[in-house]
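Milestone 3.1: sequence recovery, worked example.
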């Protein structure tokens, strides 16, 4: 159910224009449109066709309950921290560490926040826990028995959803930061301990004017990542 007032996007164009949106308007999202997107995303492939993705989507009071519960944990400081998994490997080396550092610098640079202004950088990061103002939050979780291949399947599903959202004129931001307070999120959503939270996905309408949505997000060239053999 793409937006009717715009021509359909090619996959290539949807890939080109998708970005992690970090400022949303408060315009609501039509649940029928989301339902249609999730139905389409069920075509995502997975090893053995396990389809290991399990998804909880919240809005309104249920979404507010998650934000409130996590805010209470954050207020506890380090004590409140309850990571589901290591978001990055310990001792991340180059080229990955430079890419991680580079995208942070580009983001804060676009907002005019210098490196020394730690409070402003922290405030920008903490906006994660409002879902950047998105009216809908999707939580992607799976059974704890699943391993790396099934986690990769969840990523394929996630990108499918993100591209379908773009096609529908909607925006998103994947947010693994919620996994830092995974147990609280799961408890608030009523998920049992057999589940593990991978990521959130903030969903809504992009605030096109916001500087945080307008900077160019760098990517490595293909020669950095592709080794052609036998051509
Ligand atoms: C699984 C996953 C989790 C992410 N978690 C966060 C997050 O917690 N907060 C955030 O601001 N961005 C998050 N991102 C967005 C990445 O920073 C972003 O995808 C990357 O810098 C490339 O930028 P782009 O998505 O705008 O192309 C996440 C991305 C993925 C795929």
């Amino acid at each position: 159910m793409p937006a009717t007032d715009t021509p359909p996007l090619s996959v290539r164009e949807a890939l080109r224009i998708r970005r992690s949106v970090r400022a949303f308007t408060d315009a609501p999202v039509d649940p029928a449109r989301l339902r249609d997107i999730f139905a389409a995303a069920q075509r995502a492939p997975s090893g053995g066709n396990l389809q290991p993705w399990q998804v909880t989507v919240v809005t309104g009071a249920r979404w507010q309950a998650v934000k409130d519960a996590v805010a209470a944990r954050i207020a506890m400081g380090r004590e409140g921290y309850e990571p589901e998994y290591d978001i990055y490997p310990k001792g991340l080396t180059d080229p990955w560490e430079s890419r991680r550092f580079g995208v942070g610098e580009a983001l804060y640079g676009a907002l005019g926040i210098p490196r020394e202004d730690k409070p402003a950088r922290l405030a920008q990061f903490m906006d994660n826990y409002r879902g950047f103002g998105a009216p809908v939050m999707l939580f992607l979780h799976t059974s704890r028995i699943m391993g790396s291949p099934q986690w990769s399947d969840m990523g394929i599903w996630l990108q499918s959803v993100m591209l379908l959202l773009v096609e529908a004129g909607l925006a998103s931001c994947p947010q693994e930061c919620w996994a830092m307070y995974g147990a609280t999120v799961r408890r608030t959503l009523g998920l049992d301990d057999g589940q593990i939270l991978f990521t959130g996905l903030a969903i809504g309408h992009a605030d096109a004017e916001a500087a945080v949505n307008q900077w160019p997000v760098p990517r490595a060239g293909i020669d950095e990542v592709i080794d052609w053999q036998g051509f």
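Residues 19-20, 22, 103, 128, 173-177, 199, 217 surround flavin mononucleotide (CB under 6 Å). The mean pLDDT is 96.
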